């Protein structure tokens, strides 16, 4: 069943990887902001087209078994186009701050930040870590303290930045999908946690491509895993411990999460040559450069 999905990915990459790669190279070579935006949009469109074709073939492939098709349809259950409050400009600042605070509490409760610090520790130690989509900087603080490295924590929105930066952490506004201010290999490690599921496929691939470009030692991504029963379980359990808006965003987030196969496809389309994919308890996916193996 799962081998069919991998076979579809390999077929698509043979057909489209070179074309998508050439569009990505053109985006990186663009010299003016206007041309760069145009080229990046072309790259997003190219990636979105491949992912759409992957989903179509996953169901329509002639040799797909009934079990495989049932799995694909089951995997789609709960997926929604509903936005998260964190993704809406209309969300009041105090609601946004409360959601971010509870996200930090939830991450700490499942050992997420310490787990990431342990994963990247040997590779990042003594170097410079770039975190994308840092929110309130909870992960950056743990990494700086426990790994012993300098962390540049960035986000496209500075509303969640703390008033005082923790030791070893610097905050900066930056667009994770267009790190034009960072040269190739200008940081040692690039890290992104719980952000990719917020983005459509093309934009998520842009983030992965930029991480791969700016990090000399390797890139590390942790995101929510696509497990169909988790949104309902989270909704039931979350009401006991968290606010309604945080539970709402959590349910939507889990429903928008990608499978490991889909995450690997995006990595290849972003130019990652060597990487590993794995699950992490309770419902996370890890994509990491070979340096972290």
What does this structure look like?
Helix 1 packs antiparallel against helix 2 (33-60), helix 2 packs across helix 7 (201-214) and helix 5 crosses helix 6 (138-148). The protein folds into two domains: 2-76; 86-292, Vaccinia Virus protein VP39 (Rossmann fold, 3-Layer(aba) Sandwich), CATH 3.40.50.150. The two termini are 27 Å apart. Helix 7 (201-214) links the parallel strand 4 (187-193) and strand 5 (215-224). The mean pLDDT is 90. The chain is built from ten helices and seven strands. The chain is globular. The chain is α/β, with parallel strands linked by helices and 293 residues long. Strands 3-2-1-4-5-7-6 form a seven-stranded mixed sheet, with helices on both faces.
Name the CATH superfamily classification of the largest domain: Vaccinia Virus protein VP39
Give, in order, the helices and strands.
HHHHHEHEEEHEHHHEE
Give the distance, in angstroms, between the N- and C-terminal Cα atoms.
27 Å
Low-confidence stretches: none
Secondary structure category: alpha/beta
Large-scale geometry: globular
Strand content bin: 15-25%
Shape-level CATH architecture of the largest domain: 3-Layer(aba) Sandwich
Radius of gyration: 19 Å
Oligomer: single chain
Strand order of the largest sheet: 3-2-1-4-5-7-6
**Count of discrete structural domains:** 2
Report the biggest beta sheet as strand number plus sense, adding barrel if it closes.
Answer: 7 strands, mixed
- Would you count the extended β strands for me? 7
Helix count equals: 10
């Amino acid at each position: 069943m799962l081998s069919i999905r991998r076979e579809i990915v390999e077929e698509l990459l043979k057909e489209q990887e070179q074309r998508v790669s050439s569009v990505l190279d053109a985006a990186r070579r663009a010299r003016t902001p206007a041309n760069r935006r145009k080229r990046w949009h072309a790259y997003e469109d190219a990636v979105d087209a491949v992912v759409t074709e992957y989903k179509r073939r996953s169901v329509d492939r002639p040799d797909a078994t009934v079990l495989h098709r049932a799995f694909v349809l089951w995997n789609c259950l709960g997926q929604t186009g509903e936005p998260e409050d964190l993704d809406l400009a209309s969300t009041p600042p105090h609601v946004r701050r409360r959601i971010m605070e509870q996200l930090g509490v939830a991450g700490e409760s499942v050992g997420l930040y310490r787990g990431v610090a342990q994963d990247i520790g040997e590779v990042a130690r003594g170097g410079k870590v770039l975190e994308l989509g840092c929110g309130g900087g909870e992960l950056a603080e743990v990494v700086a303290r426990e790994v012993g490295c300098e962390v540049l924590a960035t986000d496209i929105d500075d509303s969640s930045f703390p008033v005082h930066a923790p030791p070893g952490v610097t905050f900066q506004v930056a667009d994770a999908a267009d790190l034009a201010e960072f040269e190739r290999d200008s940081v040692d490690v690039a890290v992104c946690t719980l952000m990719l599921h917020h983005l459509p496929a093309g934009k998520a691939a842009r983030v992965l491509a930029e991480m791969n470009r700016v990090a000399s030692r390797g890139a590390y991504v942790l995101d929510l895993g696509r497990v169909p029963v988790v949104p309902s379980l989270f909704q039931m359990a979350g009401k006991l411990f968290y606010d309604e808006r945080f539970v709402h965003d959590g349910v939507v987030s889990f429903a928008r999460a990608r499978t490991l196969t889909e995450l690997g496809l995006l990595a290849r389309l972003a130019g990652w040559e060597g990487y590993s994919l794995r699950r992490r308890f309770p419902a996370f996916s890890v994509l990491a450069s070979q340096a972290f193996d």
